[in-house]
Write a structure and sequence with these properties.
Helices cover 50% and strands 16% of the residues. With 241 residues, it is α/β, with parallel strands linked by helices.
């Protein structure tokens, strides 16, 4: 059985179960990595996945699960389509305007394994909904944010906690002012852009998206440092203010 046939068989097996566990996602990712498929082969594989989903929809009442399966498969195929090299690819998006917000939503929709978010304030429900949807389909989400902004009216941090997402805060009189996130250890976003409606609709902001390996690794290191340094709650919420 060649790599394409192996992948098709694995896709069909996961579709029959209407679920893809984290172990299955990792196995599919390893098969894709070893197969070294060409862009044309990846396109054909995506088409096969769409055909499989279409056939399944005709005989299954659980349309939502089928669509979630297809979304996960597309996410698994997408990173390899933008192969991560030492040089990588970089794009810059500006606000006001919907481009930064939509790019964040797309990255969250395609995330298949893990997302580490380190953002000063998160209040844009359209982005928060995608974070919750990713967590619901099994993506491991971790969030670092500023302790004071977490308590602001409109902050979605409590929604994330209630959904079981791990959150850590800085418990400091100074601000945790970063606005970066790492998707599947493959793509990093950074810039002035807070994940808020005001940033999208009114503010002059920038968002940089990069798959440059060295850059991703530096942000991974910083996230780990902050994650280990911060806590889930502040012992005394007013002691450092």
């Amino acid at each position: 059985m060649d790599s394409l046939e192996q992948l098709e068989s694995a896709l069909q097996a996961s579709l029959d179960d209407l679920r893809i566990s984290r172990g299955e996602r990792q196995a599919l990712r390893e098969i894709l990595s070893e197969a070294e498929l060409s862009p044309t082969q990846r396109t054909l594989l995506r088409k096969k996945a769409f055909n499989m989903a279409s056939n399944q929809l005709q005989g299954s009442p659980n349309h939502g699960a089928v669509l979630e399966w297809l979304e996960t498969i597309c996410g698994l195929l997408e990173p390899a389509h933008l192969a991560q090299t030492s040089s990588g690819e970089t794009e810059v998006l500006f606000a006001p305007g919907n481009a930064p917000r939509q790019r964040l939503r797309t990255l969250l929709q395609y995330a298949s394994d893990k997302v580490d978010i380190c953002v000063f304030t998160i209040t844009d429900n359209t982005v928060s909904d995608e974070i919750l949807a990713a967590a619901d389909r099994g993506v491991a989400i971790r969030i670092i944010t500023d302790d004071r902004k977490a308590e602001d009216v409109g902050s979605d941090i409590e929604r994330f906690r209630e959904a079981g997402i791990e959150v850590r805060i800085d418990c400091s009189s100074h601000h945790m002012h970063h606005k970066f996130a790492i998707f599947d250890d493959h793509t990093v976003v950074d810039g002035s852009y807070n994940w808020t409606r005001a940033a999208a609709d009114y503010n002059q902001e920038s968002l940089i998206v990069s798959t440059e390996l060295a850059l991703v690794r530096k942000f991974q290191k910083r996230f780990s440092e902050l994650w280990n340094a911060f806590t889930e709650t502040c012992p005394n919420p007013h002691s450092n203010r």
